[in-house]
Write the structure tokens for this entry.
Amino acid sequence: MNLAIVTACPNGMVTSVLCARLLDAAAQRQGWSTSVEVVDVQHPERQLSQATLDAAEWVLLVSSTPVDMQRFVGKRVFQSTPAQALQDVEAVLRRGAEEAQVYVASQAPVATKQAPRIVAITACPTGVAHTFMAAEALQQTAKRLGYELQVETQGSVGARTPLSPQAIAEADVVLLAADIEVATERFAGKKIYRCGTGIALKQAEATLNKALAEGVVESAASGTVAKSEKTGVYKHLLTGVSFMLPMVVAGGLLIALSFVFGIHAFEEKGTLAAALKTVGDQAFMLMVPLLAGYIAYSIADRPGLAPGMIGGLLAGTLGAGFIGGIVAGFLAGYCVKLITRAVRLPQSLEPLKPILIIPLLASLFTGLAMIYLVGPPVARLLTGLTDFLSTMGTTNAVLLGILLGGMMCVDLGGPINKAAYAFSVGLLAASSGAPMAATMAAGMVPPIGMGIATFLARRKFAQTEREAGKAAMILGLCFISEGAIPFAAKDPLRVIPASIAGGALAGALSMYFGCKLAAPHGGLFVLIIPNAMNHALLYLLAIVAGSVLTGLVYALIKRPEAVELAVTSAQA
């Protein structure tokens, strides 16, 4: 039998790829010939040719998002959903072979005019896992509810599937599922509802309904969009961290690459090692201004950017480091908000406020505060902290490793995770690499541990979970903690404690062994770089120990899948 498999999901990621792999493998086990297409609007050249479709006896379409059905007119087509396919691929193939019917153009579903129209943006600090998983959950739920939804994902490579002006104009409400601040100028006059990516991922239906019911119009004044909700300190901090991360990773890896030529090779001027070290150091110099600038941006929008960056640059110059940058960002942001509300000008002079009055007064206040009030004591604090870390005893080091390791595993990419990471990055910029090593080791543990658990207790996991476990291990090796999110979302009361136990052990062992890391990201692949890690084998041992502990604990405490138990009893 010749079968064409077409899968599609929002953004063309995760679910569609997984469905395609599982269905293709199941069909080939039955001796069928297959052609597979994962729909990707960004790459239309990857779609199956018309000749391939004509040669297929029938088409299996697994989709949670609208696709062009005109390609299948005249072909036997069986439509299913990713949820059904992932639950039982064999059953979907059997039903498809038996129930596929010739598709005609008149069968195309007509959109209900009364269906609610929603446009959404998803964004998280790193722009990787939470961004796309939240978008996928919202798309699938909207299709099930009969809502019209378009999602723009603001990920690590920029905006994907950007919202068109027409879609925004026709939308009933704008849903901002973001853990960082996003620009809202284009939504002026529209109802807006805000929430985090975690809420959108875990409670997609409730989020969509609340957006329709509770969305409110945000007013615009002086070029600044007013925020109707109270945003917390974490959100402002995470916004700063999200813009800082690319600079930190680039700078850290460039410095680590300079060590390839020898730990002190950069001291010789004119060499490639010296050039790499110089570029990396300059990137680190920009880290604190970016952090402070975008914290202020999150609080006060664009007028806060200039005074925030000035304060951050002064923090770096005065030796106050990342702690001073955080203080400068909040000082600048709230100063801009105060000036915006307090300073009243005649209507003819009002346009001068955002381009002259606010930058001048906010930069003056923030700069003087950093020079005379904040900079010197914070610099002494940072110096004392660095000295303490470099001279602390084994017990204190282990305790710090346990704390950082546990924090990395509490919310898997959430605020607590990012707070621990930002703390370690700041100390790395101050030439203290031990906390960075403990943090990265612990961050790799949850996804690797989940993968180990799926191997140790295979019968307790569904086929889809075993496949997700393999993917999680790969993500873990790359230091992407979010690979464990599918497991944590389904079984948080068991996954999170098991992850914390393993992460704390990995962090403690890393600090106990005296491991120091020169790069802020990269996972195990950083160990390939010579001299980037001082005790590579001991560091690897710490990661393995933590991952095995997490895997063992979760394999023991996890409950078997109810679906698989039911099937077994029926066969018996």
